[in-house]
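Reopening this one. Same input as before:
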Amino acid sequence: MAATAGDLMFEDVARAAGELTQSGDKVSILKVRERLGRGSFTTVKRFLDKWHSAGTAPAGGSSTVPPQLAGLWSEAVKAAEANLTAEREALDQLAADLQAQFEAFEARALTAEAERTQAEVRLADKDVELLHARTQIEALQATQAQTQAELSTALAQARAEREVWGLAQERSERQLQALVEGVAERMALMTTNFDHRVEAIAAAQAQLVDQGQALVAVHGRIEQKTAALAPVVGKVEEVERLLRQAKREARPRHGRYLASSAPQSKHGDTRNVVFRHHPPTRANWELVRSHGMSKGE
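Same output, byte for byte:
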């Protein structure tokens, strides 16, 4: 496949280089670009380097050189080709640098053109803004004039109202003075009444303090009596506990005694015997019931 760079092909560069060689012209990047009419310096240089490395360039030498001068001629041709190659490389490098500079300049020119276009657009926008600002200024000036006229009218009205207000203020000050004097008199009366109430409250507080002290004294005596009765209460509780215990212990023995000493009736009922010797009290009923339950067991 033929090598290409954009729309430029290696065959195009090789053909142009061959035509220059056949016409006896020096093969260079500028000559090739001039003959082709297109292609960048870097692209043409790359294809020319490939063309030279491929050995397509015509070799030096001539068959008309005498044999005795062939070695000298060959060395001269080699030296000339070396110089030519160095010059060609230098020219190619210069052409590449010029192409790079040209491309950079062209890019800067495009950037400057774009910036100029943007500046023109911004300038047009500024013209529109300036026109709009001028319109606003004119409107503000008209509004200012109207406001100034309204302000003058308002000042005249304010002066007239100020005169009226001065008269009203004098009247209000007299009314306020009378009101202040009346309030001062009522405050003095309220202060006197307040002092009397404070004295009454202080007396009541003193009375409450005396009553509180009396209650504290009574409470202290009650606590003393409670402390004195504490041993007696403990003894009473202990006696009650011993009585309950003795009652629980005596109840079974009494029941067994009644059961053993009382004659049995035909149905084994001992209630008549118990009630014959003891009155039918609640305790006797409990004894009889417990005796019956023990026999039933």
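So the earlier flakiness isn't reproducible anymore. For the record, The radius of gyration is 70 Å.
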